[in-house]
Amino acid sequence: MSENEKQEKVVYFENVYLTFGSKKVLKDLSFEIYSNEIVCIAGPSGSGKSTILKLISKLISPDSGTITVKAQRLGMAFQYPALFNSMTIWENVALALQETTNLSHEEIDTRVKEVLKTVGLENTEIMYPEELSGGMQKRVSIARALVLKPEIMLYDEPSTGLDPATASKLESDMVKLRDEIGVTSIIVTHDVNTIEHISDRILILDDGHVVWEGTNEEFMTDKSPYPCSFRERMSIEACEIRYKNYISKKK
């Protein structure tokens, strides 16, 4: 039995179709996400990557097909932090708890401080977003999602706009959440470094469906066109030519 077969499926798409106007965004899309995985979803612009996150979080609905999400709580970290500049960091993180729970101020304060510590931003509670770097603001947005104790975290291009050191710290935080809290992470990204450093499994989308799926190791070594295109920043066409040459030499 494979490792995935031992784990619980927490998200699965079955034959999902979605159309925006005349554009077919997703076509017969099927895949599975397992508990405690870090799964990266890659693909060219317009392939439907971010749309998948919206479907999982029920911001939109498919035209047909089945989407199953086995989680009571989801957390979403957007491509940009989207913090309220007029509110302190504490207020930004606490807002969801104040609006959706009956927790006391003391309980909310404890939880806010816990999640800020988790992302390495303790003692920033009274600061305002403009006083923090872009990377720190992005980590605040993750803390804001974590404060509701989600079982699944969704990330949309988390490394966009970050310097390499900050992106690396953010990636370490994601792994920490998996290892210490058991959070399943689904990450839409075009960043090969992020894929290489933290993914357990990778799905590559094109033309609205999964065209390649594999482990981190398979992604880094597979010579077929789609992994090649992402690793080496080459066109699919160029990678297809190289792959045909590689196969012909093996014969």
Provide structural commentary.
The protein has helices at 3-6, 49-56, 89-100, 105-118, 134-146, 164-181, 192-198, 216-221, 225-232, 236-250, and strands at residues 9-20, 23-34, 38-42, 64-69, 74-77, 152-156, 184-188, 201-206, 209-215. It is globular, with a radius of gyration of 19 Å. The protein has ten helices and nine strands.
Feature tags:
single chain; 251 residues; alpha/beta; 3-stranded antiparallel sheet
Beta-strand residue percentage: 15-25%
Global geometry: globular
Going across the biggest sheet, name each strand in turn: 5-6-7-3-8-9
Structural classification = alpha/beta
Number of extended strands: 9
Question: Could you estimate the helical fraction of the residues in percent?
Answer: 40-55%
* SSE arrangement, N to C: HEEEHEEHHHEHEHEEHHH
- Biggest β-sheet description: 6 strands, mixed
Poorly predicted regions: none
Count of alpha/pi helices: 10
Distance between the termini: 33 Å
Q: What integer value in Å does the Rg equal? A: 19 Å
Give the rounded overall mean pLDDT. 90
Please write out the topology:
Layout: H1 3-6, E1 9-20, E2 23-34, E3 38-42, H2 49-56, E4 64-69, E5 74-77, H3 89-100, H4 105-118, H5 134-146, E6 152-156, H6 164-181, E7 184-188, H7 192-198, E8 201-206, E9 209-215, H8 216-221, H9 225-232, H10 236-250
Parallel strand pairs: 3-7, 3-8, 5-6, 6-7
Antiparallel strand pairs: 1-2, 1-4, 8-9
